[in-house]
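<instruction>
Derive structure tokens from the sequence
<data>
Labelled lines for chain and fold
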Amino acid sequence: MALLTKAAIQGYRDYTKRRIAYARFKVGSTYYKSLIESVEVTSAGVVEISFKIELSSGSGEVTEVQLYDTDNQLWLSKTERLKMDSVAEGFLYVVQLTITEITA
């Protein structure tokens, strides 16, 4: 039996939408900051956070992506392997978060 109401779960989703501030991605030993393109809640209740991964010059491999909140606190870190072969190449990266209650 769930303890939290639908309104409470939606409140956590809305909180997440307000708190996510920016993303970073790592190429080689350098981190690059990326602005958040959008934070949306889908009709299924999934929080989708999207940002662009682009290099201003050269190529490389993205090995990590991160999300930070408005207090510059790390909220998410994920290992990746995204090859960037040319300056014209980039990615729209989407993080999907499902916020649910699990009762034991």
In short: The two ends are 9 Å apart (CA to CA).
